[in-house]
Specification:
Number of helices: 3
């Protein structure tokens, strides 16, 4: 990790109640790192979607990692499911199936290798 990077990590058992907790944790961490509000907002949305995906479709312990460097924020979520996250086309009446498509739309890059799904956001930290 470059010297100007900061990171946080949380590990937890799958529980939908953790989604809101991870959003709050991510928001607090991003404020501490002085990530601009517009970028922090989309990063927190991605955290919500990736954590929800891991809780609902993953297996075993879920680990959320957020890294903030000078010009990029990276969100990584891992679990023990070997199947990669995929883009789905959800019908208009479906209540789920849009999370990864949303991450694809709001992030600058994303990928899923199975156990890990990550996304990145290009940004500049607030001055000061």
């Amino acid at each position: 990790m470059p010297p100007a990077s900061h990171g946080c990590q949380a590990a937890f058992l799958p529980d939908l109640a953790k989604v809101g907790e991870m959003r709050q944790t991510a928001g607090a961490f991003l404020r501490q790192c002085r990530v601009s509000e517009p970028v922090a907002g989309v990063v927190v949305l991605a955290v919500s979607e990736l954590v929800t995906n891991a809780v609902v479709h993953g297996e075993g312990e879920v680990v959320l990692r957020i890294t903030v460097a000078v010009d990029v924020v990276r969100v990584s979520v891992t679990d023990h499911n070997l199947a990669p996250a995929v883009l789905k086309k959800a019908g208009p009446d479906r209540e789920s199936g849009r999370g990864i498509r949303l991450v694809d739309a709001i992030s600058d890059a994303w990928e899923s290798s199975g156990k890990e799904t990550w996304c990145e956001f290009r940004c500049a930290r607030a001055a000061g």
